[in-house]
Amino acid sequence: xxxxxxxxxxxxxxxxxxxxxxxxxxxxxxxxxxxxxxxxxxxxxxxxxxxxxxxxxxxxxxxxxxxxxxxxxxxxxxxxxxxxxxxxxxxxxxxxxxxxxxxxxxxxxxxxxxxxxxxxxxxxxxxxxxxxxxxxxxxxxxxxxxxxxxxxxxxxxxxxxxxxxxxxxxxxxxxxxxxxxxxxxxxxxxxxxxxxxxxxxxxxxxxxxxxxxxxxxxxxxxxxxxxxxxxxxxxxxxxxxxxxxxxxxxxxxxxxxxxxxxxxxxxxxxxxxxxxxxxxxxxxxxxxxxxxxxxxxxxxxxxxxxxxxxxxxxxxxxxxxxxxxxxxxxxxxxxxxxxxxxxxxxxxxxxxxxxxxxxxxxxxxxxxxxxxxxxxxxxxxxxxxxxxxxxxxxxxxxxxxxxxxxxxxxxxxxxxxxxxxxxxxxxxxxxxxxxxxxxxxxxxxxxxxxxxxxxxxxxxxxxxxxxxxxxxxxxxxxxxxxxxxxxxxxxxxxxxxxxxxxxxxxxxxxxxxxxxxxxxxxxxxxxxxxxxxxxxxxxxxxxxxxxxxxxxxxxxxxxxxxxxxxxxxxxxxxxxxxxxxxxxxxxxxxxxxxxxxxxxxxxxxxxxxxxxxxxxxxxxxxxxxxxxxxxxxxxxxxxxxxxxxxxxxxxxxxxxxxxxxxxxxxxxxxxxxxxxxxxxxxxxxxxxxxxxxxxxxxxxxxxxxxxxxxxxxxxxxxxxxxxxxxxxxxxxxxxxxxxxxxxxxxxxxxxxxxxxxxxxxxxxxxxxxxxxxxxxxxxxxxxxxxxxxxxxxxxxxxxxxxxxxxxxxxxxxxxxxxxxxxxxxxxxxxxxxxxxxxxxxxxxxxxxxxxxxxxxxxxxxxxxxxxxxxxxxxxxxxxxxxxxxxxxxxxxxxxxxxxxxxxxxxxxxxxxxxxxxxxxxxxxxxxxxxxxxxxxxxxxxxxxxxxxxxxxxxxxxxxxxxxxxxxxxxxxxxxxxxxxxxxxxxxxxxxxxxxxxxxxxxxxxxxxxxxxxxxxxxxxxxxxxxxxxxxxxxxxxxxxxxxxxxxxxxxxxxxxxxxxxxxxxxxxxxxxxxxxxxxxxxxxxxxxxxxxxxxxxxxxxxxxxxxxxxxxxxxxxxxxxxxxxxxxxxxxxxxxxxxxxxxxxxxxxxxxxxxxxxxxxxxxxxxxxxxxxxxxxxxxxxxxxxxxxxxxxxxxxxxxxxxxxxxxxxxxxxxxxxxxxxxxxxxxxxxxxxxxxxxxxxxxxxxxxxxxxxxxxxxxxxxxxxxxxxxxxxxxxxxxxxxxxxxxxxxxxxxxxxxxxxxxxxxxxxxxxxxxxxxxxxxxxxxxxxxxxxxxxxxxxxxxxxxxxxxxxxxxxxxxxxxxxxxxxxxxxxxxxxxxxxxxxxxxxxxxxxxxxxxxxxxxxxxxxxxxxxxxxxxxxxxxxxxxxxxxxxxxxxxxxxxxxxxxxxxxxxxxxxxxxxxxxxxxxxxxxxxxxxxxxxxxxxxxxxxxxxxxxxxxxxxxxxxxxxxxxxxxxxxxxxxxxxxxxxxxxxxxxxxxxxxxxxxxxxxxxxxxxxxxxxxxxxxxxxxxxxxxxxxxxxxxxxxxxxxxxxxxxxxxxxxxxxxxxxxxxxxxxxxxxxxxxxxxxxxxxxxxxxxxxxxxxxxxxxxxxxxxxxxxxxxxxxxxxxxxxxxxxxxxxxxxxxxxxxxxxxxxxxxxxxxxxxxxxxxxxxxxxxxxxxxxxxxxxxxxxxxxxxxxxxxxxxxxxxxxxxxxxxxxxxxxxxxxxxxxxxxxxxxxxxxxxxxxxxxxxxxxxxxxxxxxxxxxxxxxxxxxxxxxxxxxxxxxxxxxxxxxxxxxxxxxxxxxxxxxxxxxxxxxxxxxxxxxxxxxxxxxxxxxxxxxxxxxxxxxxxxxxxxxxxxxxxxxxxxxxxxxxxxxxxxxxxxxxxxxxxxxxxxxxxxxxxxxxxxxx
Length: 1953
Hints:
The protein is an alpha/beta fold. 27% of the residues lie in helices and 15% in strands. Strand 54 (1874-1881), helix 54 and strand 55 form a beta-alpha-beta unit. It is elongated and about 135 Å long.
């Protein structure tokens, strides 16, 4: 086992353990050996976990297509071609004698073929399209299993006739193959050549070289197997068997996922010929079949892959002998042995099998060459053995079989497993390790023997167990090397000698016999001397003689050859052989087999056998007798009476069952969370740089849901869509949604789907601004490639439909289609070739994390893991069970009827059990012995449950019969028995088939309509959900469920008939998913399977001898949950899980009340029954209730109380709603709680509590499984992972390698996805097969998502909710929240005594406008918290303005309105559309980085230094600037002329200062400007320049100097204005040289906020010029329209500032009556930089700088004009702007916000310094705390604070009066005003003592002087002679709370004397 390196002792652990174990087993008296192997290899090794994550190590380059022959394990040396002899021909396609050998040339020529030779085609690399004809001795060619070819070569040249080539090298030289590698016949002799009907030589079957049966690629549509002729199928038996009966005329089947056969894909298939095909001159046995072969049909499902059950694990790490580059791993099921047995012949994953043909060995016409005589299969083998032996080919050569081939099955799966495990060592060669020796063949076989020995009698060998054993054995033997080479880089190590074989071929038979000696002959070893043929003959002899009756496995070993061993393993155990042989059938073959047995009457013998079981004769006779006896009494049956009674009770107003109230439809928290995750994934696709999804370009959402062709699923999806309201939400329908409208959005993938899908594609093409979501529900269904469909199933349109529709080019390329795959079983979509990126997977979230509920819900999901948990020790009765008596009867009948498929037997047995149980319940008590306890329990509860509910609610029993013909048989039989027993009115039997709708009897439809309050006379239930409360058996057929949901009245899920041999993870979880359930979590019974009161039931005294007591218990228990509630019997947890002991003996079992009880188990079940005591205590419901309310009453207490009685006696609000298990109040039943608990009330309430529907809503259904499946589901590995989870995930994929880690229980869904993506590959028939090379990211489709979640958990509701919120988001993307606030201080506006202007004037009249008074009051609502500015008009008004708002409320409380973005809106960086791509810089001519940096300097005297700004100018915008010719220095920005009248561009440059809004700022003005040319400059801070440049690469940037990095908006405004004036001067000088007057240069710029989103204009329609009545309307217009209107105004250069109104929906006629106002302008201003040359913005300001500037402009005598007919909408933004400044302590570790009161402090104090500019601290402090400085001014509007030269906001409670100290300035008249305070802010030399003496102040008025430093403060006091009138104190000095280096501002306050 180990490599013995020089100087290192080899590891002996494995050999020692092996030999010691075998020796100990021999000495032991125990029959079962010590399970040492299972300890070594069957449990996970924690120590080696580091090994188990690596990716595939196969990094070899793939060879050319078609090359797949044997090759050495190391790279071959370059082959040296011998030079040809002088003068010979070297032309390709000719031999050296110059004769043409090409098939196309000599196909019609006669060729002399010697006896014993065959014509074959050789492949020349230099002639890829040709075959060369050769004659080769057939002895040197393989048989059809790849065996028995003699070594060496013997061939002739058919061209020149030269004979006797004994070496293939010599022959290849002669025919000029010109090879670059070592010539090998296996690699270059490709196929046989045959003559067709016309006598022409054509390409025939491929030559099947040893080990390459599964290696070829694609050889379509023909008998393309490894044998020389296709097999002749037997549709009546399992595979690899000839039929002796006539075969039904069925189509050939072609399993999806079958493996390709043949060594290469270059050989085309045999053409379909009209006449017979001749093999080298001989007639072919299937001359009639060529036409049918080309039309082989493709079934719906793939063949399972297993050693009987499971797939082997994939191709080896490096290709070696027997493997092709693309060969998938699983082998085919049974190859022909010398004749036409029913094997599978695959190409491209599709088997080609002819439908009819000759039978038996007579059809073998081709001579068989073997190393020994063929082995004859004895006659009547099946009859003798009662099962067909399954023979697995192992190592070496396998002999031919002949004779009765119908009775054996041969499979190469074990051979493939051996081959795979030989390759695992190569995984480590990538680390530079020397080649580690693979596990030896001897050790493989020995491990296999030991594995078989330790299998129990009812277990079936699993291929994946064997693979893991091999893997762990190899890792154990190479532990040192693995640890050395895996984690670390390679290190030098001593060279390894030859491998040391721990087990020699001579030891092998002895060791194998030793291992098998202790297993009581369940494994028998046969040793052969010469070949396997002797061993097989010996096995057949022993079988016929009956000597292997107790043997399950026969291992045949031939170790005579020195080089290698030959071996095979025959499975002879009846149970194992049947399971394994049936597992090799594809689902289509399985259905065909069953149909054939039904059609031909084979099952009649089974029916005859059943009729002999009953002592009174045939069951039908008993039924007829019962029917005649009861016919007269049917009308008075309890059923009719109870139904009538329940109806009358309901109508009469007596308390009826409240559980019939349907729960309201609502979105659960989980669904909303998943919908939001889906939305975030879609957004992330849109946000990625790939631009695969442009969400900004979509206006609405449309969708199409594709579902499997199931009528119930279709109707169910329609119901969900209808009731979700999604169509109304998406605007796809108005008000009333009709059914026809809903049907347009759900597509059933059937024959008509293609036409409807084309309509969908056309819609998507015609509506590019609609986002179409293509939802593929149940996405694991039909993953067949359309290529496979086109080749093999053109007549069946449903095959490959998903691939043809959802993967078509139109869907993949459409930029407005997002595909969402939704499934509970995503594994087949998680392969190495998947189209879905792992980042686009959305998994259903876990319900809790770290013990906390993430999404609390009122219902608990009960899925597979919860069902498995219920089987663990410590719980109450398990919800997963198996029926041991049923299994025992099936096994016995399987032996009696070996030719019948087990599905037929199981179905007939189960139907017989149900029939007997119905008869037993109806009083024929003798029939109890002919059913199982489980079936009797189900039937009793089904029939009796409706009587326990006043409304007649019952429970549903789901009977799963996958095979449709068997489902029809079961339906007919059960319906017949029901009719004979007069039970038609008691429960319904419904046949549920995917292809048809539901059929429910009129009586039950009437009941359903009453329960659901439906008045529509035509209504019929169309989904299973609408059957809620209906007592029924639902026979659910179809090979796979298609997503049908089941009602919550489902009580029993009978899965005893599921196809247990086809075990893959998807199939298993899909079947168990039918029982998935939501349990109401209200009230005490919410616990489900957890044990609470029942654990101690076994110790309670038995009370079964008290008949009354027992009867009362039977009344009180829950009829809907017998398994948990009725039986307190506790089974031994270590024992089996069948329900044999769950019955409670009852004397009243035949009565109506006896429906709760079960018959005592009989027969073989008595043993287990005897092991458990059988007390009968209170029901579990009462136990639980008592556990919550106090001590439980003793079982013998006088008064037996039901759960409802307890609730009546002890009412509690928490418990009352539990009756209905719904959110609605209990209704009339609640009234009973207030009345005395008398007998009548007690009876009524007890009846209500019996409703099975109410009970079922709080308990999951009970699931019955086949024993094989039960063991698979409940067994776990060492990590706790159920074994079922480690199966092959889907039948359409294969494992990429045996060398893979195991799944772990701790893996999340995401980790499982990554695991499958690494370790599985699709089969050739899978639609993803040709997608991409492994690891190529480009293979992912960018707009494809996958949503996975457990079955029945609510995925449909989640994705419908996703559609709704996606639509809302798209609408939200086309909408914007704009500020919608009324103007403030409107009542303070002075009414004009006369109207200066005409209402219809488009522009203001300059002379009239000069006469308008300036309105000092600020009306912009954003300044609601600002100080009111008083003029002489308003100074007398002193109204209170209300309390101030908190600063944090300022943003939150501002009122907004949601507006739809118009086509003229400004956009942020998230907007993308084709029109503005060039504008944004996405233009092919200009690269994103093509922009240049230019310095631009100018001097400004006030700053005392030169200002240097930087422009970043993209290449596309350089035409707006002037550059010096030599050097390209920036000189100026071009300005137009005042006289320009062009309408193609905007004259005014637009400047937008911005901070913190690189993503959200509205800088895309392309649409706002309506495409007009304009100059737009972003003004940004230096540190933000890179990020703005990244997001806006095509915008001009003006970068402020670094000293302004912490400055406010005032600095930006100041620099914009000063730069613009400087540029105006430069342009005047430049253009003056061109003869243009300076005053003709355009002097205006636009300063716009970065949140201006849309602009509007008001159209006024007045009734005459002077009329007071007028109407007006507002419309959205482009900014271009507004700017060109303003720029065209006459005398425009006389206006200093022009602005517009802020939009408000509440603006009335008063706001627009006057077209123009002389007032403040904000947000969007047109500034005349020429007129305002001497008026500057304050560069220090952060807040209110526009108000301050407006006042200064007006005081300078300049005109401010507001166009009231224009308005601007401002978008609400939560990021950036002035909110970006957070004031925090400078040295604090945690940035905690500081309150405004701390913004100032006393000078020289130890106050913590703040990290903020001094000016910002000042403004914020004055805004919130100025009343500390001006106490007299608080709410004293008649005496405002006087502000000189500067407006500062002192808060809304203080009014101010602004005056300018400049000479000749316009000021308000203050002669009659008395002020309550004076604020002097950084006053300059214009402010003098004489100026201040003009103003009058109240006594006690306060003064505040603010200066840059303390020295300036004192100088100002002295210069202004302030101490004459003001009193100062030392303690009245303050400063802003800055550090000294941050230059704080200083305050001095004083009082007026």
